[in-house]
Specification:
single chain, 16 helices, 79% helix, 0% strand
Length: 447
């Protein structure tokens, strides 16, 4: 009888899976930052429009991402229990979902989103550029979701090394096209905001092609049950939906809260919105290592649940948090020592420095609370208890948006006090997540 290969849960084993995810995450989010930096030279309305377009696009595709995340959790379970042949059928059901869902999103983006934006924002210039970004970006929604499907597969089987190579290449291509298309270098036309969106469409299409070629050539298709196409099977898809549906709703709630935050911030004016979009670009960028660590913890826990090694779950949480706090200490130090240098990438207007830097410094403090709350929160999903995670997310978001609305619309407080809402959000998430891991019956969850 073949001896079961156990997951390496040491710091080195954790870093082996996490490091490629961090590299991939930094590369992916660098694109959004570069978009905002290049568009910043075109005007504040372009920055606000592009930033809101990025958020709305994210709000739509994370619904599909919720499905692939659910698939990833089940793939991790099957990988941990060495039921490798059952992984392929999961992947193919995910593929059928992605094809259908991307078609629906494309139609929605092209024919519904422009009117939705017009009804939502007061500034016609922000609406104009957000609509340009969205309708162009919508042509690549299929590529976005296919890439997420492959990422879910490779993370689920803990073979993340390839992501550390592919994603930087895709991002480098995207940034190169940004430079060429936003400002129009050489033979390329100057497309502005449209160029930023088009660059993403082309690079993600190239990424999908790379994933397909690599999988066909280097992955053991027979081992993972990928040797032949499988027809759509509702029973298998239903199993994925049972895990992923709460994550899909949770992603809508989470990104929707971000989007609503910027709708509220617009009440403070176009400048406050532009500054907040710049801060968001930096904030998301420094969040990437913790996102990656949390994703690694999620798939480690899913594999451990498959192995029935429940006693190793909490040590994984603690080890991941230690790494997250160390990484945060680095970004915290750099931003607080050189805030003008960081903001200088986005604007040379010294009149915005004071307000922007105060808010930026505040977010670096909230990162430590983010680490303490988000990693155990993602671990809850890794155990398969995605409904509990949805409940925690929803409760935290309600409190978060209540404070944000009061601060930006009712009291009209300074921008940095509006950004203090991050402490409210992550504070509640931390308390609720740790309470469930300590007293909840997460070990009993079967998938």
């Amino acid at each position: 009888m073949q001896r079961m290969q156990k997951l390496n849960t040491s710091f080195s084993g954790l870093l082996k899976v996490t490091t490629p995810l961090i590299i991939a995450g930094i590369a992916m989010n660098l694109v959004g930052v570069i978009d905002l930096i290049l568009v910043a030279g075109l005007g504040e309305a372009q920055v606000g429009g592009t930033g809101n377009g990025q958020l709305l696009y994210g709000l739509l595709f994370v619904v599909g991402m919720g499905f692939t995340s659910g698939m990833q959790i089940i793939v991790g379970r099957r990988n941990g229990s060495q039921d490798y042949k059952k992984i392929g059928p999961l992947f193919f059901q995910g593929l059928y979902f992605v094809l259908a869902f991307s078609l629906g999103l494309f139609v929605f983006i092209q024919w519904v989103v422009p009117d939705f934006l017009d009804a939502l924002f007061d500034s016609k210039n922000v609406v104009k550029y957000a609509s340009i970004y969205m309708t162009t970006r919508g042509w690549g929604i299929l590529f976005t979701l296919i890439n997420l499907l492959f990422i879910g597969f490779f993370v689920g089987i803990t073979k993340t090394k390839i992501l550390g190579y592919f994603t930087p290449f895709i991002s480098a291509l995207n940034i190169g096209l940004d430079l060429a298309l936003i400002n129009g270098y050489g033979p390329f036309p100057q497309l502005g905001v449209e160029g930023a969106a088009l660059a993403s469409v082309i690079s993600e299409g190239a990424g999908s092609l790379l994933f397909i070629i690599y999988t066909l050539k280097f992955v053991d298709l027979e081992k993972y049950g990928l040797g032949k196409f499988m027809a759509f099977n509702w029973e298998r898809t239903k199993v994925i939906f049972e895990v992923s549906a709460p994550i899909m709703i949770q992603n809508i709630v989470s990104i929707g809260a971000w989007f609503t935050f910027f709708v509220f911030v617009e009440n403070l004016g176009e400048r406050a919105l532009a500054i907040s979009q710049m801060i968001r670009g930096i904030y998301i960028f420094i969040m990437v290592p913790v996102f990656s660590l949390a994703d690694a913890a999620n798939t480690f826990v899913s594999n451990l649940m498959g192995e029935k090694n429940f006693e190793k779950v909490m040590p994984i949480v603690r080890k991941t948090m230690v790494l997250g706090i160390l990484v945060n200490a680095i970004s915290f130090s750099l931003i607080n020592l050189f805030p003008e240098f960081v903001m200088g990438f986005f604007t040379q207007d010294i009149t915005v420095y004071g307000e922007a830097i105060t808010s930026l410094k505040l977010t670096t403090f909230s990162m430590f609370l983010f680490t303490l709350g988000f990693i155990p929160f993602r671990v809850i999903s890794g155990t398969g208890n995605t409904r509990t995670a949805l409940l925690i997310e929803t409760m935290s978001v309600i409190i978060y948006l209540s404070y944000t609305y009061y601060a930006s619309v009712i009291a009209v407080l300074p921008l940095h006090l509006v950004w203090a809402s991050e402490f409210v959000y992550f504070g509640f998430m931390t308390i609720l997540s740790w309470s469930y891991l300590k007293w909840g019956n997460w070990k009993l969850k079967e998938i």
